[in-house]
Structures are given as C-alpha cells and as structure tokens.
Amino acid sequence: MTYLVGEPLDFAADSLAGFVAAHSDLVQAVHGGVVRADASPQGEVAVVVGGGSGHYPAFAGWVGPGMAHAAVCGNIFSSPSDSQVVSVSRAADNGGGVLLLFGNYAGDCLQFGKGADVLNADGIDTRIETITDDVASRPVEQLQERRGIAGDFIVVKVAGAAAAAGYDLDAVVEATRRANAATKTLGIAFDAPTLPGADAPLFTVPEGHYELGLGVHGEPGLSSHPLNGVDDIAKTLVEGVLAEKPADARRVSVLVNGLGCTKYEEMFVLYGRVARLLEAAGLEIVAPIVDEQVTSLDMAGVSLSVCFLDDELEKLLLAPALTPAFTRGAVEHSGPRREVAAQAGAELTSGSPDSAAQGARLAEVMDLIARTAVADADFLGKLDSIAGDGDHGQGMVLGSRAAAKAAAAAAEAGVGAATVMRQAGLAWAEGAGGTSGALWGRALEAVGAGLSDEAAADAATVLAAVRAGAESVAASGGAVPGDKTMVDATTPFAVALSEAGDDLPGAFAAAAKAATEGAEATKDLVARKGRATTHGDASLGHPDPGAVSFARHMTRIAEYLAEQG
C-alpha cells in the first residue's frame, strides 16, 4: 500500500517534482519528463528512455552522464504521450540523433512510434529500439514480442556508455541491439502492488506460493508455485535465464533486482545462491549488482537478469556513469547548464458564432464523458486487473478530465466545433498516455477533422465525423475485430451509425446498443493485442475493459441526446 499520497491521480506528477527538487544537480524538468542538467557534448547521440511511472529508479533515475540523456515519464503504469516524447527528445537532442529506448509494450510502441515520426519529420534523426528481456512472456521463437522488465537497466547502461564513448547513431543502435539480445530476465512476486489511493492490490498471491513470470505493471504472474525456500527460487531463476545461454558464453553481468518491497538483506541471501549456481555453470560473474532498478510500486518480489558478455559489452557496462540511482567510477559533470526552451501554448482562433455555439455543446459532452469516467473508474480498474495492469479506470479519468478541461477552455475562447474537439483530443492523449489515451485522443481529433470552425454541422455531418472517429481506432492501433480490444466495440458502433439515418439521437442510440453488444461479446474471446495477451486465457469469461468503457460512454451520450430531444 502507498501511504504518502496527496491526490492519487497526481501521484506521478508529485513524485517527479520531488525527484527533480532532490536531484537538481543532475536533472531538470521539461514538459513530459526530465533531461540532464548539464549540456552534453555537441554531436553526441541522445539516449532517451521512458515509460510509465511507478518503476523508480526506472526511468528518470537513470538520467545522467554515462547513461540516459533524458527520460519521458508517463502516468502510473501508462506510457507517456507522443507529444511528451517529442518535447523531451527535442530538449535532449545534441545534434547527433536520438535513440528512443523503452520496454516492449503496446502503448509505448504506439506513443514512441508516433513521436519518432514527428521528430524525423522535423529533421532529427530518430531511431527506436524496444527491450525484450523477459523470458517468461514469450517463447524464444517469439523473442521480438517479449516484454521489457529489469533488463531495461542493462540495455540502457550499454546504450548510454556507447553514446558517451562517441559512437555515432548507427553504432549506438547496434550496441543496444546486441545488449538486448544478450540480456535475459525472469521474475517472481510474493505480493502484488497497490495503485496509489487504492485499498486493495491488483491481484492476490495464494498464501505459501509465489507467482512466476510477473510483469512490472501489476500483471499477475504466468503460473503459481509453492514457496519452498530460497534455494528452490534461486534454482528456478537461474535455470530460466540460462535456458538460452549461448554455447560460447563465459562471462555474465548479473542484476538481482528488487521490485519495491523486498529487503536488501533478502536479495543478498538470494544473490549468494545465484552466484554459486552461475559459477557451477561455468560462468564468471562481472560486476554484479544487487539493487532496486526496475520496481513496481510496492510489489514484493525479485527478478534475476543476466547479460552474456563479449569484450565490447563488458567495456560499456563497466564504463563510468553518474545518475541519481546508479554510480560507477568517476564522471565529470560540471559543464554548462543545459538550456531548455519553455513549452509554447497553442494559439486559438475564434470560430463563427454558430460553430462556437456547437463547440460549447460539444464541451458539455466532454464534461459528461469525464463524469462518467469518474463513476466507472473502480469498475474498469478491477476489470482491467484480471488480465492486464489495472490502470484503465485511472487512465480514463485522467484523459477525460484533461479533455473536458481543454474543451471548456477552447469553448470559452469562442473557437469553433472543430477546434474544440481537436483540443480535447490532444489533451486526452497527453493526460492519459497509454494505448487507450492515444486511441481516444486520435478519435476525438478525427471527429474534429470532420467538423468546421466556420459553420455549425448538421446531424448528418456530425454523425459522419463521429463515425470517422470510431473508425480511426482500428487504423491507429492496428487491431481488428476479434482481437479483444476497444475495436470490438468501435467497429459495430461505426457500422450502426452508417446504417441508422440522420436522426442524431436515434442513430446514436442504435450505435451505442451495437457497441454494448460488441463489448459484451468479448467475454468469449482470448486477447490477441496489448498487455492482456500475456495472460490471454485469464481474460476468458470477462469482457475487454477498453471495449466496455467505450460502450458505456457512448450509451451515456445517447441518453444525453435523448434527454435533449
């Protein structure tokens, strides 16, 4: 349980502000995260890491000479938005290109991918590498689909050292890929994390057991095992990470990583046994680390990571580094302070009176969505925790509140309907982060693209715009009906809109009914997209949270339209 909490939804932002205040000699805040306080050499590759909060030291704690140049920080267990990726990367860029480095999760891939597109279009050479060290999450034949967990630390250390050594962008990418391929991690949990402000953990571990193959976002393990003592656990972890040992492996870097609520003394007890087993397997241990580097709030558990070393990887791992959470050797960091430009706000242009009036009505709808999200938050969070990370309810509140606030501000400024919806979409993606944040944000922007600031849209135009928004979800996320995602609700919703005629309340009611039926039908599906795929069978018998939340929001809007007449 998290005890020191102000407003739970502000926990990530509050924590980041305190972190920057405590480590102002090494980092400074920028929109969306942190960058190094000191300017890096001109022409040096900028290694930008990131992901959701709740994993400290990952990712902000790794920013400093010899490791990352910046970290993009999302909400708890949620990927940052693409605009945050762009903002942080621009602040970190030294003219040598940018490497975006993060764990392999759907939301991160979507948001960092979009950010990379923007950066490349702006002339900043930007590459993406995902970290895939979790051996439990996929078999070796599907290595590229594995999750990134504690091995993130090792891969980021190699990438940062390569950049500091003067490697060009291609060479930094190559070293990073080899580090990722050489790094294997397996984790266990004794107890689940609890989201800030929540009164129950995201899952329960049977007494006297541990969960094997856990995620770091509150996902349960892949299997439950009797707790038969530390020797058994050490053997299980070592066998798991050595299953893919290269035939010529002789030296390994080792990380015993605490997940947030495991005592260092316990980790040392485990490491002693791990070391003996690795040495018995003919491996020489190089500079072992027993520490918390990738946590999961207050999860009780531990993971074991090994990196099978060659001469270059060993040199890069042993290179000096100085960050808030990790120090190795001596590093100079007394250069000039990095200059960071302030984030500029968007300029809003007034719309026509009729379009502005329609924009004000749309702002009321966004407020309705926000109130619905608050009412549904606990229900959606519990539904999401069955096979996912339990943050969907929280994400919907964060995104919808930000969207409602932006829509209200835009409407008050007298802009037209198109701009109101575009501002709402941008704010939703920024406020929520994660996959659903990106999809809802782009859907609202697509609605805005179908409207006008010059004239109020008639019912047919509004319905066409809403249909385009629903259709954008599949186009943006790459899912298809049957994948057990939000698309299983948005697709029948869009089809029903196209067949329902131009009566706005009637068409919306029919479409909301179709969305509800589509969401309900996901109970019989196994997840094929997103974090729930790792625990796909666990989701059987339960509907998809994203599909359910979309259907509930559309139903509430349909009721609102019927009330308006």
From TrEMBL:
GO biological process entries: glycerol catabolic process
Gene Ontology cellular component list: cytosol
Molecular function terms, GO-annotated: ATP binding; glycerone kinase activity
InterPro entries xref list: DhaK_dom, DhaL_dom, DhaL_dom_sf, Dihydroxyacetone_Kinase
Pfam families: Dak1 (PF02733), Dak2 (PF02734)
Alphabetically ordered keywords of this record: ATP-binding, Kinase, Nucleotide-binding, Transferase
Enzyme Commission identifier(s): 2.7.1.29
Name the UniProt record assigns to this protein: Glycerone kinase
Organism per entry: Propionibacterium australiense
